[in-house]
Design brief:
32% of the residues lie in helices and 26% in strands. The protein has 10 helices and 14 strands. A hairpin with a 2-residue loop joins strand 9 and strand 10. It is globular.
Length: 306
Amino acid sequence: MSLQFRPIEAEDIETLAPFFGQRPNKTCDSVFLESFLWRKYYHVRFAISGGKAIQWLMRVNGEEWGAMPMCKAEDLSHYFYEMVHYFNEELRQPYRISLADEEAVKALNLDSEKYEVREAEDLKDYLYDGEALRTLSGKKLHKKKNNLNAFKKEYDGRYEYRRLCCSDRYDVWNFLDQWRETKGQEVEEHLDYEIEGIHEVLKNCSTLSVKMGGIYIDKRLEAFSMGSYNPFEDMAVVHIEKANPEIRGLYQFINQQFLINEFPEVKLINREDDMGIEGLRQAKMTYNPIGFARKYLVKQRQAGVI
């Protein structure tokens, strides 16, 4: 029986959640919320195979792509080649994955004559020590702590951190409207899809496994963050972090407070990739990453040659 793919919806979390976190994977794609946030941008569809794996289909620039199966490590090879057959027999094209995690690539050890495997350098996720980001201790994070302290001094008595829930969604929507206006029209293609994804999460936050927090200044939301948890890696993924850029130290404060309040003991923090944007790369490097979750382009060189 052929795989039956359909679009991903919020209520699918109950069905899909057990398949995540079954094998080593430190990328942001290792948690359900990432696929849900970007489901419209990538036209994400899924199928459950044999009750043991999630198979993925995505459409990028009019072309079909797959993703690494969500399954146990010992089943990875079986379900990888299931998708190879699906692409070859059903779609009549070579199999290809745009964001294959490093652990899966190493485990599969694909024949280089049959598959091209190339690192997508601009799309590697930044990994940080959780305790370092919660304390901002040490010389390398000294400037971050100075900015944070400047914020606390400037707005003493006027700010508070709040754990956000569904009922706060209108505050977030209003904040996003203002934040989006500051970006103008000349922005990256993904930006409006990201905002649409945030709206969808907020509409369904009682269903989804999501952590949210915000900083209010004079009772007005000026920064917020959204994350989820990968228990296999003891890793928090920070999917969204936005703040009023005019307020010095606010980004540092929401970064720290979100982790202190929502992920107080998590060992590893994934703050996603920089999309090849130089300003984002510099900002992420200043937080002193301890490593990267590298991702790879995998392409079958010729359909039928497995």
